[in-house]
């Protein structure tokens, strides 16, 4: 029986995604995210399920997450509400969990839109 003491309401998480993005570039980062997905997925189903996440989370240093933390993670990224994460949902979730990378992406999008507006006005 799990007690509330075993749950980790605020896991110690360091966001390495921006560093990886700078070192690997866009294609390299996506490749690494795909590798992470492959480590966590249920190989028979081709998606990350609660059981596969629980079984394989220690491979990514997430062994201290409670069952509730894992369920919340799945729910947060499960856009099609099938109870699992496909590769696209996993990659989107990883970006959403990285505030620094999201801010940088927002900045780059704004710059691109402004450039489009400039180009369009000529």
From TrEMBL:
Q: Which controlled-vocabulary keywords does the entry list?
A: Calcium
EF-hand domain residues: 65-100
Q: Which InterPro entries match?
A: EF-hand-dom_pair, EF_Hand_1_Ca_BS, EF_hand_dom, KIC/PBP1/KRP1
PROSITE patterns, A to Z = EF_HAND_1, EF_HAND_2
Database matches in Gene3D superfamilies: EF-hand
> Could you tell me the superkingdom of the organism this chain comes from?
Eukaryota
Protein name as catalogued: EF-hand domain-containing protein
Which species expresses this protein natively?
Hevea brasiliensis (Para rubber tree)
Kindly give the Pfam families that the UniProt entry links to this protein. EF-hand_8
